[in-house]
Amino acid sequence: MSAQATAENSAEVVPPEIADLLAKEKVAVEKVVSLKAEKADAGLIKEAVDEMLKIRSLLPPQYQPKKKEKEKKKKGGGADERAAKKEARRLARLKKQGGGDENKVVKDISADMYGDLPLPQSRTNDKSGRIWFHVKNLTTQFADERQGEKVWVRGYAHTVRGQSKFAFIVLRQTLYTVQCVVNDKAAAKWAGKIPSESVIDIEGTVVKLDKPTKATQQDVEIQISKIFVVSRSTTQLPFQVVDAGRSEEEIKALEEKDEKVVRVGLDNRLDNRHLDLRTPVSQAICRINSYVCKYFRDYLLDEDFVEIQTPKLLGGASEGGADVFMLDYFGRPCCLAQSPQIHKQITSACSGLERVFEIGPVFRAENSNTNRHLCEFHGLDIEMAFKEHYHEVLDTFSDMFTYIFDNLYKNQTDELATVRKYHHFEDLVYRAPDSVPKEKISGTFGRTLRLTFEEAIKMLREAGVTEEEQEDYDDLSTPVEKKLGGLVKEKYGVDFYFLDKFPLEPRPFYTMPCPENPKLSNSYDFFIRGQEILSGAQRVHDSKMLEKAVAAKGVPVESLRFYIDSFKVGAQPHGGGGIGLERVVMLFLGLPNIRNVTYFTRDPGRLAP
């Protein structure tokens, strides 16, 4: 009798959390019964039983399954005796495998040619001293240098194909794959039934091939001497990683041959992101994402910036407006930070740190279901004091982006090649040609094109964009941004540029007005391939001017009193900007959707996984 049945026969009201556990326990019991009826693999049955027992262990005693006393006597007089018999059987198996020492299990199984390893629990004697190799290092040079040597690798079973006397397995580790061959008939029969996406250990010899394979390590293969399953995958996956990893060109080529092709949709990928992240293209994007952060941090630390960590719970909106997530903070209203704006200004201009940066989450309650908007993304924020002119900040941004792009193209060649295999894109042109006059350039070693908003409007007008489509002092709409990006590419030959002197009205309250034209501001946006990736400005550092600006935007002044008062004790002229990490990576790689570069998407329609 299951715990569910026990509870159903009880007259008491079952608490909701217990009812939830009971429902899960019932599903787990049914799964065990079904697997046993199907005579499924013993490893799968064991996993299902373990999961059932795990759920039962969370139930209070009164909801545990109850067995009749008669059944206990029939089985030998209670739990202690049954446990003793179970332990005796376990020790007998161990003795048969290697002398009864439980710490020898891994060693003894490894002495065989194939099989399922016991659950890795970091036993005392589990340290074998093996040297493990990464699949990416298995090259023809490696095969020459280690001719005849046995090597150990671990990865996912990307594809498995069994034949009568052979088994072919493509092993995948991160974004690299290698073909592996089992030549022993008995081992091949067993290995040919390994479910795809199982984690496997392989010992074998790396040999060179005359004919290349379709694996990334196309000129070598591993001739397997030992193969073990570390963690067996269920045979019913929501989709196959090999299907999710095909490019559109590969899919069309297969369709032209009338071969059956499975297309994995975006929603399916996002619902099962843990599996989608295994694809080589996702692995490559994740690493590029990581390296953008690394190069951002490396450059700024070398330029005497200080990395800061600012709060994400605020008593008032960080930038004003209604696009904030409101929370209850012990009876007081609170919101999630739209950016680290307030605190990065305080640390930079008012606290003596002068140059600061942060990498952290950003929250926007915008009901935008576009291919480039998220409700939670990651910001790369900079704030710095300057001496004479806010263009000093633009020079820093230019050099920083140039450093990031240079290093990505220099060091991430494998990752970029992997993304190109699945989605072709042109290299980003981010250095303005020498023909562009110096007054339109930002940067010291970088050469970033800098145009004014007024120049951009003029280019749009000449291209036929009317005032109805874009007024002179309105912010740029997305279609107009893209149009302008095409015009800039055509005239100046670059995909990356700055737009300076934006209209004051659409900018946040902390933006410094332009002294020459009160309708404009000392603010700027940066663009990649015609889409914005950064917004920034010189900030207001005068407390009286700042208080008026806050009130003019309709933000309650007292909710930002601590911020305004910070500028009453002497504040340095400063400026900065906020970069959207995911948008930079998306546009740098020319990808069609920001969800492709987000680990776990948070948009208006998605809160899980």
In short:
This protein has helices spanning 3-8, 16-37, 42-57, 69-74, 79-98, 105-111, 140-145, 185-191, 241-244, 248-256, 266-271, 273-276, 280-302, 341-350, 391-411, 413-422, 453-462, 478-492, 543-552, 561-566, 581-588; strands spanning 114-116, 151-162, 167-173, 176-182, 199-208, 220-231, 306-307, 313-314, 326-329, 332-336, 355-363, 376-385, 441-442, 448-452, 496-500, 523-528, 531-538, 574-580. It has 609 residues and is an alpha+beta fold.
Topology:
Blueprint: H1 3-8, H2 16-37, H3 42-57, H4 69-74, H5 79-98, H6 105-111, E1 114-116, H7 140-145, E2 151-162, E3 167-173, E4 176-182, H8 185-191, E5 199-208, E6 220-231, H9 241-244, H10 248-256, H11 266-271, H12 273-276, H13 280-302, E7 306-307, E8 313-314, E9 326-329, E10 332-336, H14 341-350, E11 355-363, E12 376-385, H15 391-411, H16 413-422, E13 441-442, E14 448-452, H17 453-462, H18 478-492, E15 496-500, E16 523-528, E17 531-538, H19 543-552, H20 561-566, E18 574-580, H21 581-588
Parallel strand pairs: 1-6, 4-6, 7-11, 14-15
Antiparallel strand pairs: 2-3, 2-5, 3-4, 5-6, 8-10, 9-10, 11-12, 12-18, 13-14, 15-16, 16-17, 17-18
Helix pairs in contact: 2-3, 13-15, 13-16
Fold and architecture overview:
The protein is α+β, with helices and mostly antiparallel strands. The chain contains 21 helices and 18 strands. A nine-stranded mixed β-sheet has the order 7-11-12-18-17-16-15-14-13, with helices on both faces. The protein has a five-stranded mixed β-barrel with strand order 2-3-4-6-5. A three-stranded antiparallel β-sheet has the order 8-10-9, with no helix packed on it. Helix 2 runs antiparallel to helix 3, helix 13 packs across helix 15 and helix 13 packs across helix 16. It is globular. The two termini are 34 Å apart.
